[in-house]
Amino acid sequence: MSAVVVDDEPLARQIVREYLSHHHDIIVAAECGNGFDAVKVIAETKPQLLFLDIQMPKLNGFEVLELIEHDVVVIFTTAYDEFALKAFEVHAADYLLKPFSQERFDEALAQARAKLGSQSADTLDALVRERHVSNKPAERVLIRDGAKVHIIPVGKIDYVEAEDDYVAVCSEGKRYLKQMRLSALEAELDPHKFVRIHRSYILNLDRLAKIELYAKDSRVAILRDGTKLQVSRTGYAKLKQFL
Q1: Contact in structure between 93 and 106 (CB atoms under 8 Å)
Q2: 79/11 Cα distance (integer angstroms)
Q3: Which of 11, 17, 42, 181 ranks highest by number of CB atoms within 10 Å?
Q4: What pLDDT is recorded for position 203?
């Protein structure tokens, strides 16, 4: 079984490696100290098991899970207990609160083995869906583009357009494709700032310049940059609450 260890503290990574040394069937394929490196390493090594810190520079542990395209069983290792509920919402095998003993580590590893044995590791789509249950609205959207990761603050989003199983996040004249349903992204955004104006569009209210009648029972939203988006009757009813 291969594992990757992700933690920004070298001592914490060393402790995990030491505890793993008692389990001869597990090989540490790689370790890294930040979220960006973790995404790249996981894509390259495709581990079965991931030991993942939460509070890290650049990307936190949950954002790493959102970006990886590989099914992996996760054991969180963190000094903060306030993330425990969120960790189990993404179906982590266990949540190790630092400092933890070899015995507690072995218990977590047993949970991970059981999860691997039952082949119940969750897909990326499930992780993304569950990640935001009971969370505050997203502050940024993460989009993977090959080896690159784009981090877009939600305040810089102009609108979002559905494209089959993808969404096109439109920001400052650029379009970024993300494999995600429009309804899933809608659930992450602040409903007081982003409105589903059409089955294909989510609009940032700060970008709205005016609404014009296009035809009978049909309207268009005109953005500050001149972009025109179709508005459905249901969408217009939602917009009127903010006008």
Answers
A1: no
A2: 13
A3: 42
A4: 97
Query: Strand pairing partners for 174?
Result: 171
For 140-240, which CATH class? mainly beta
Strand partners, 223: 208
Length of the chain, please? 243
Alpha carbon 60 to chain centroid distance? 10
Q: Which residue has the tokens 């597990």?
A: 26
Nearest to 36 by CA among 69, 17, 58: 58
From residue 38, alpha-carbon distances to 28, 32, 41, 195 in Å are 13, 6, 5, 34
* Amino acid letter for position 144: R
Nearest to 129 by CA among 83, 177, 81, 179: 179
Q: Is 111 exposed, middle or buried (0-12, 13-18, 19+ CB in 10 A)?
A: middle
Mean pLDDT to the nearest integer, 219-225: 94
Contact, 6 vs 64, CB < 8 A?
A: yes
Question: Please, are residues 35 and 56 in contact by the beta-carbon 8 Å criterion?
Answer: yes
Token pair belonging to 14: 């060393």
Quote the tokens at residue 127: 């992780």
Which amino acid is located at 78 in the chain?
A: T
Just give the CATH number of 2-131: 3.40.50.2300
pLDDT digits (tens, 9 = 90+) for 68-115: 877 899 999 999 888 887 787 778 899 999 999 999 999 999 999 998
Q: Would you list the domain boundaries of the chain?
A: 2-131, 140-240
* Residues 6 or more apart whose Cβ sits within 8 Å of residue 185: 141, 160, 167, 178, 202
